[in-house]
Amino acid sequence: MTRILTRGDLLTLLDPSACLDALRDGFARDAGGAAVEGQRIRTDLPFPGTATALLPGLLPGVEAYTVKVNAKFPAATPALRGVICLHDGADGELLALLDSATITAWRTGLAAALGTHVLASPGSDVVGVVGAGAQADLVVTGLRRLRPLRDLVVHDLSPERAAAFAARHGGGVAGSAAEVAARAGIVVLATWSRAPLLDLPDVRPGAHLTTLGVDEPGKQELSPALLRAAGVLAVDDRPLAAAMGVLAATGLPAGAAHATLGELLRGDHPGRTGPDQITVYGPVGLPWQDLALSLLAWREAGRRGVGAEIDLLA
Ligand SMILES: NC(=O)c1ccc[n+]([C@@H]2O[C@H](COP(=O)([O-])OP(=O)(O)OC[C@H]3O[C@@H](n4cnc5c(N)ncnc54)[C@H](O)[C@@H]3O)[C@@H](O)[C@H]2O)c1
Q: What keywords sit in the KW lines (predicted)?
């Protein structure tokens, strides 16, 4: 039988703290690793969006895997739609079909919260958001579980989206990305931008920046000067960052990343070493993160009887 887990089902099943634990554990154990990174397929479409597939999501010691298929249509709401197939590793049985918009936002946003928290100054308690969308929502949700946040300031091309985000999370609206960076010690960018939104002079000494929107060739949120000035520039995966992430946008090689999130969480890299250092985290998102959260949701759904079961072979 295959369990169908909708957005509503997933929101009742997923717990941010349990998801943070699963993601922290995966990064600390280097769950993906280059050997099992698998394939990331992206193609343009004769429509205003792209089709992407990530496969397989694998975790050491887990006899299951995921295949994720996403539509990315920046002007749509939600912008990401698709499905994650969770398969049994023993015989390929399709255990679950999960709403990918929800799992993707949770795994991206909560993993980004870990990267943000580990690099930001311990006392930074004002978070700025540029791009008030699905991914940023979960970064703030995760960050609140990791450190106290005194204030939030948000900017979006859509004033309505910015206002709704500020109302949801408690905080105010800013008129530009530069205004956000002037007011916040932690800045999270999660947009569809193809040009830098922040340059070095915009950023406060000691600021931390998490750039999530740079996960495909051609996308950019931070200027090359800002990235080069970072005392710690961290990524989730060096080759992917150089091929299509924050390094690619600046023409930097894989070796230009000072650390990975795994190295930071394992203590293999010291992370921030001074209060005035600028730090940057720029992940592209890894397939094992989809498996980690899909498994949590599927197991919990089985325990609680959540989600319809269908027999696709009937
Ligand atoms: N790094 C990763 O692991 C990862 C994973 C999933 C999605 N993403 C990327 O994150 C980005 C955001 O995804 P989402 O699902 O939150 O999208 P979304 O459409 O829900 O939110 C994006 C928001 O950014 C705003 N925006 C777009 N361009 C802007 C600009 N130049 N200045 C200010 N605001 C702007 C939009 O109005 C929208 O409200 C996308 O680029 C997506 O591809 C990254």
A: Lyase
